[in-house]
Every structure is written in C-alpha cells, then in structure tokens.
Amino acid sequence: MAQLGNTIVSLGPVEELITYEFLDANLGRTALATWRQGFSRLEFLGDSILGLAVFSTSEIHHIDRQQAIARVSNHHLDSVFNETFAGHTSSNSGDVIEALIGAVHLDGGYEEAARVATALCLPEHQLAVPPVHLDDQDVSSIRSLSFVGAAVLSAAVADELCRENPGQTHRWFSEQRTAALSRWHLAEVSMRLKYSPEGDLEDEKFRAKASDALEAAVGEQYFRRGWDVARNSSLRIVRL
Burial letters for 97-115: b for 16+ Cβ neighbours within 10 Å, e otherwise? Predict the structure, then answer.
C-alpha cells in the first residue's frame, strides 16, 4: 500500500480483483490516483477501450444496444467502483475503472484490457476478442457493424494520441480525436475508398450515410482480423 498524507493507493488487491499483474506498477498506481499527473491520459484511453470491448461483445451476444451503452455509463461505472475498488484507493470515482483499463492496455495490450473491461462491465457474457472467425452469414447477423466500427476508430485514435502525447490533457485529447474523426472527413474518405458513392458533403444526411459505410467496413475488419489490423487501418484512414 502506498500512502501520502490522506491519500491511499493499494495496487496489489486491485491486481487480484482484475486478475492482472502490472509489469509497470506505476501505471497501475496512477490509474488508482485521480490526483496524479497522467491519470487523465489513462482515463481517456480506457474510456475508448472499454467502449469497444463492451460494444463488440454485446453485438456478438445480441445484447440490446441501450443495455450495452448503460454498462459503460458513468452511473454504472461509479456503482462498480463502489462495490469493487473503493476500499483500495482514496479516489472516489468510476473514472478509476476507465483509467485501469487504459493502464492495462498500455501495459499488456488490447486483449488483456478488453478482458478486464468485459469482466467488470459485462460479467454475465464471455468476451469475444476478434478475430472471431465469422463467416459471411455470421457477419450479416451482426446488427450494426458501423456501431462497432465507430468504436474501433475512436479507440485507435485515442491509443495513438495517448502513446504519442503522454503529457497532454483530457481536453486536448478529446479535441484532437473529434477533429480526426469528423463526419466530414470520414465521409470524404469513404467516397475516396469507394465505400460510398460520390455525393454532396454539404448534405448532412449524405455525410452520415457515407460515414456509416466506412465505419461498417472498419467494424467488419475488426471482427474478421482483430484489433491490431483494424487499429492500423483506422489510423491510415484518419491520415488520408
């Protein structure tokens, strides 16, 4: 247990709870300490990784989308934090869960982070980490590839930003990601890559439809080929 004044961070019991031992213990301690420099970066990244893990697993198991969204809400995360981690840190926010997932991702990779995310927020369902060997019929049964593809793009950009700019603020990360993933840009790339026909980018409905087509392609790639391939493709898309 690390203690400074009235602040407490107890990493060992948390590692047992999430069945993950950090190679870099400082990442884990930072994730438990909302007051530490670097917490915001882990929380921002973990929010995106959590969303992707829960949303993709919910699609595989045909869970209602609103239920999936509720599982990553601040209200639910606060509840999980209070039930599971409150006794091991002076922090008092469900943001700690997102930061823990971000820390695991940086420390041990996406699959471990997705496992922790699903175990905490969707414990009644087994994590399906892509590639999941879907055939064409299986892919067509997934209700919203674009829903998952949007989460992949968000997670990929968050991952890149947080690795390349560790000293930046949550606000900076959010602004950079929003700019990178604008509907205008995604629609433009969708046309360029022939996922959607040519159209008027001034038309909001066209931008939404074209963006959805590109996100669906990313979602399908994620399910068929996994995080690493989809992440790299997403970053190429952002840079086009």
Answer: bbbbbbbbbbbbebbbbbb
Quick one: DSSP state of residue 129? P
Structure tokens at 90: 């002076």
**Which residues face 2 on adjacent strands?**
9
Burial-class residue 63 by CB neighbours within 10 Å (0-12, 13-18, 19+). Answer: middle
**DSSP three-state, residue 189:** helix
Over range 47-76, report the average pLDDT.
92
What predicted TM-score, i.e. pTM, was given to this entire model?
0.91
Q: Is 52 left (phi over 0), alpha (psi -120 to 50) or beta?
A: alpha
Q: What is the structure's pLDDT at 9?
A: 87
- Tokens 């840079």 label which residue? 239
CATH number of this structure's domain 1-129, picked from the four choices 1.10.1520.10, 1.10.150.120, 3.40.50.720, 1.10.1740.10: 1.10.1520.10
Distances 107 to 20, 22, 102, 147, 159 between C-alpha atoms, Å:
10, 7, 9, 27, 12
Quick count: other Cβ atoms within 10 Å of Cβ 193?
13
Q: Are residues 162 and 169 in contact, defined by beta-carbon separation less than 8 angstroms?
A: no
45, 164 in Cβ contact below 8 A?
Answer: no
Per-residue confidence band for 144, with pLDDT thresholds at 50, 70 and 90:
confident
Residue 219 · residue 148 · CB < 8 Å: yes
Best CA proximity match to 59, nearest among 186, 187, 195, 150: 150
